[in-house]
Amino acid sequence: MTTTLITGGTVVSATGRVLADVLVDGERIVAVLAPGSQLLGSDLTASVDAVIDATGKYVIPGGIDAHTHMQLPFGGTSASDTFETGTRAAAWGGTTTIVDFAVQRTGERVQDGLAHWHELAAGNCAIDYGFHQIVGGVDADALAALPGLIDEGITSFKMFMAYPGVFYADDAQILRAMQVAADTGLLTMMHAENGPVIDVLAEQLVEAGKTDPYFHGIARAWQAEEEATHRAIMLANLTGAPLYVVHVSAKQAVEQLATARDKGQNVFGETCPQYLYLSLEEQLGASSEQWGAFEGAKWVCSTPLRSRAEGHQDHMWQALRTNDLQMVSTDHCPFCMKGQKELGLGDFRAIPNGIGSVEHRMDLMYQGVVTGEITLERWVELTSTTPARMFGMYGQKGVIAPGADADIVIYDPNGHTSIGVDKTHHMNMDHSAWEGFEIDGHVDTVIARGKVVVDAGQYLGRAGDGRFVKRGLSQYLI
Ligand SMILES: [Zn+2]
Ligand SMILES: [Zn+2]
């Protein structure tokens, strides 16, 4: 076993920061020591195999991105990052675990969808990975399969109130699935947008000649998100199922979550960097020499980017501070402009939905520390500790403590990161949704289960380093 001592750094947790040395033995953290401790030998630095000097830097638990879609088939194409390219990009950005979504559709068996996702990921990942189960066809067979997921280490499943004819579940289906969740401890994840309403609005816009990407954001009105969020909360209340709402972007949806939480309901919400930084006006409404008004296609995702004039972005930051929202994931679902996004030239409904961010989440959220939106501790909590607790991995992941996997990022607050396709860009896509973003910090070293996978601008990992993580039940319920 290789022993490594990380010396001189500031170890940051969700609850505080402390100067400490971290001792790694093989794949695990075995001790967090007072700086220069002599307890385990007269000179520990002389007896370990490797010493990493983290003086002046933050030592944090590796990022956990609990919402990714590697190689997801969508809209006649597939997300452009494979498990290999996407997890490598994640590692570059300080994320050491992803939770991706296995997919079952109407007419398919849940077990087959899950087995297929295991095949796609096995042996290809640079970092550890788990799965949530998408249930795109909630029928008797799927309902019967849900309890068996827990033994497979899959303790959460996602349904969609949007995308009629693709993934859509109606209220009766949602009710039945939530009843199973309440009985078993599975966590229900919800894409909360009123899909049938959105589809009518989108059709009317296109008929009126309003076909540019901007109108994707108009069709997917905040009222459709608020309404679906409220309905999901009430169905969860009725059944007693815990509820986790994915990619929250409307401030009105946050208010629904906050109201339910104030009443003591087990209701949670995540947002994503795009809903904190980007907007309907600036990105979906963008135009360029190359693409004209179709430039906005780069930022077509669902839920959509919201109006800055309406103040959604500021409200998302506030909700992260007050714990009305608990986590930040990416909903990483990248598509190239060439050959993929351009399927929707002339009709925004045909633009594959998704933004690629898995590489930049830790940096983008750190910039929120720099600008005073969140504290350093909250940064760690939102990006690692809460994802671990929410999805049943805490202790193994999400913390720097004895016994935990040695998933560690050494982050330099005096470093700098310029995001752009010709700069830091390892995702498999021909543009960056984050082009031109400047970060006042830098991911220096990334250790995944004890192995240094990124250091000093070098990638040292390997496809197949990452293993499947069997998750337990949520550790976040009240
Ligand atoms: Zn979704
Ligand atoms: Zn998603």
TrEMBL record:
Which Pfam families does the record match to this protein? Amidohydro_1 (PF01979)
List required co-factors.
Zn(2+)
* Residue ranges annotated for the Amidohydrolase-related domain, each copy included: 58-453
Please name the InterPro entries in this protein's record.
Amidohydro-rel, Hydantoinase/dihydroPyrase, Metal-dep_hydrolase_composite, Metal_Hydrolase, Metallo-dep_Hydrolases_sf
Keywords, ordered alphabetically: Hydrolase, Metal-binding
Q: Family, per the entry?
A: Belongs to the metallo-dependent hydrolases superfamily. Hydantoinase/dihydropyrimidinase family.
Quote the NCBIfam families the UniProt record gives. D-hydantoinase
This chain belongs to which protein, by name? Dihydropyrimidinase
The lineage is: Bacteria, Bacillati, Actinomycetota, Actinomycetes, Micrococcales
